[in-house]
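Batch 3, record 17
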Amino acid sequence: MKTKNTAIEQSWFVRPSTAVAPDLIGCTLVRQFSDGEIKRGTIVEVEAYGPEDPACHAYRKQTPRNAAMFMAGGYSYVYFIYGMYHCLNIVTDRAGVGSAVLIRALEMENNPPPITKAIQRLAAGPGKLCRHLNIDRTLNQIQLDLGQPLWIEPRSQQFKTALENQNKALVQTTRIGLSQGIDLPWRWYLKGSGAISKL
DNA sequence: AGTGGGATCTGT
DNA sequence: CAGATCCCACTA
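Prediction for the assembled complex:
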């Protein structure tokens, strides 16, 4: 039996980022453009950032840049970095708690198949996936819900079953590109995925 | 008002 | 491993 595709509801994101992050692996990120065109990708790599975490943009205090992280779970936090790239985060936890999950890699859907190696690398990295999906700061602080420019759909039953059978597995390890908080094991990825940012 | 560093990526 | 390239938080 096939279940209807709907967006994950906001309350699901109102948990610590370290709880939401691994649960996001296998979910689908949906990007809807203003002309109605839709692109979908499966989330295969994430990192959690939270309070008491020196690497977190919200570690010190609230500023205009990190304000989105203090919103309630279920909103977007998009920031610009290195003069060239944007990065997409999913805000987590209650309003007032500065935390989010960085989406680091997607496996893009392709119609029609097959998925080539090149397509697998299109969204293999936080900067690359934003470039591919035209995500910039105009999409900061938007609610993730059906009909918005971005939303997230839950794991398919097929994916859940594969996890239970251990045909698929998550790997938990340390985060990438940081100068602080480098030992916290808050990065998760889907084992064996060809779309991981650093293989 | 000036400045240094940053949750990146690409090519050498 | 250097370079591209811009925003913003911090210092003064």
